[in-house]
Prior knowledge:
The complex is a heterodimer of chains A (234) and B (330). Chain A is of the alpha/beta class and 234 residues long. Chain A has helices at residues 42-49, 72-77, 95-101, 110-119, 121-125, 136-148, 166-179, 192-198, 216-221, 223-230; strands spanning 2-13, 16-27, 31-35, 59-62, 65-66, 80-83, 154-158, 184-188, 201-206, 209-215.
Amino acid sequence: MTLLSLKSMQTNIGQYAVLHDVTLDVPEGGVFVLLGRNGAGKTTTLRSIMGLWEPSPGSVTFRGQDITAMHTADIARLGIAFVPENMGIFGGLTVEENLILATKNGTFDKDRLAHIWRLFPALETFWTKAAWSLSGGQKQMLSVARAIIEPRDLILIDEPTKGLAPSIIDAMAEAFREISETTTILLVEQNFEFARSLGRDMAVIDDGRIVHAGTMAEFAENKELQENLLSLSA
Amino acid sequence: MDQLRMTIERFGGVNLLPVAVALVALVLIGAPSSWVTLTVAGLAMGMMIFLMASGLSLVFGLMDVLNFGHSAFVSFGAFVAASVLAWLGGWLGADSILLNVAALFAAFVAAILFGLAAGWFFETIIIKPVYHDHLRQILITMGALIVAEQIILAVWGGTPMTVPRPNFLEGSILIGDVAIEIYRAFAFILGLIVYIALYLTLNRTRIGLLIRAGVENREMVEALGFRIDRLFVAVFMVGSALAALGGAMWAGYETLITPALGGELMIVVFIVVIIGGLGSIEGTLLGAIMVGLVANYVGFLAPKLALASNMLLMMAILLWRPNGLRPAVK
Lengths: 234, 330
Ligand SMILES: Nc1ncnc2c1ncn2[C@@H]1O[C@H](COP(=O)(O)OP(=O)(O)OP(=O)(O)O)[C@@H](O)[C@H]1O
Ligand SMILES: [Mg+2]
């Protein structure tokens, strides 16, 4: 079943046309990977889904409901969480306060919290520390933790492995695998190994257009296609 | 050197700045009784300016909105309060402290209510269409300021208006050979109460958490499911009401007000917000106290420099800390 559907989405930022034609169906369950070169429009696609840019023309449909013109906050309340490229951590707030803000009514579900602490022990260690003092990897954990502190239907994650050490990347992969058992993840990633180990379905965006969609298994086999779509020189 | 810095940090860091300034001033002034009078005057002035500036700082921090019309709330607050006080003149002169307080209370409530209503109107009608556009914000809020000043001229006329003060706030208390004006002490205490209330709201409530997070990263707060724009209206209204209250206090302090009052104070208010650091209530308080103290000390020590003292203070602080004394984390 299709959870999220993007139809001929075009997004302008100021006077620049960034997305020209993004059409994509994200099925419910598992990890859907969106690949693409630097500047291809991956981040813009996620921001357009989240209502942080408004695509026009084109539409975003979530569980059959048109959310194209909805306010970002209302989109979030439908059960869509966003882990942005810059992590969006509130540095002046503590780890605890960052997580509290991600709950609807300011209280934690004890089991979920314990689970998150097990996935990311550093968050328990630095629970009352100001978030600006966390390392890059710990900030990324906090950002992901905010997305899963309450049940969601869809999590949009933008390049979570950027600048992280291999051991932390492994922990992230483990976490995402677990999350994806109950929640659909739309993952933007440049680290192909990481993406391949997680993704079931995938698509490639280039210059604001979806240029390929299929299964990860197929794409991983096809070296020529990878070379064509992802290498530095087009 | 490092050790010295650590010690200073432990005892409050930049918060010690007003204390340092006060000590230097004591040495320069020499006479302790003049020094106490000036310090009390500086603290009182600082607190009133804090009332006027706190809303501006939060509004700028939270929504990146440059509101040059903020001083209109100060002017209106002053004139609304002055009118109520004049109207209740009988109560003010009465010997009953109760009637005195009631008249003052009515004047403050009128100023605050006016500030809330005007803030709501200003935000929804004037600011909302120009979110995310600084140039238009400057132009339209400056335009609104001119209109507001004309309205004040039309309603209250151009001649200076005398502001009656309640009896119980007149005069001074003598402690040894030091005279402390009661009104100044009152202004200081009122400002302190407002500061504590704001501090607790920002640091101990969920709304405060949302505001602090919004000052840092508005988009992320929205992506977590909160309508920052609705919260912003509320912050704007409270900020306007505090400015009006500051204006009302200022009116009683000056006892003679003209429609130009808001415009004259606007520069000081902007200086306070800039040296305090945008978006932080602690920074605004610190900036306001610094400006109040320096204005009074310099006015006594080198009257010719009095007008330039705020600007010089701002330049010195920005050279040292380009983001202000205590900016909100961005
Ligand atoms: N705020 C903006 N203003 C103007 N142009 C922008 C803005 N944000 C992005 N762009 C442009 O839109 C295009 C797509 O950007 P986007 O951030 O979506 O790419 P991306 O695929 O996420 O790249 P990366 O892998 O480097 O993160 C780029 O050419 C970029 O320069
Ligand atoms: Mg990107």
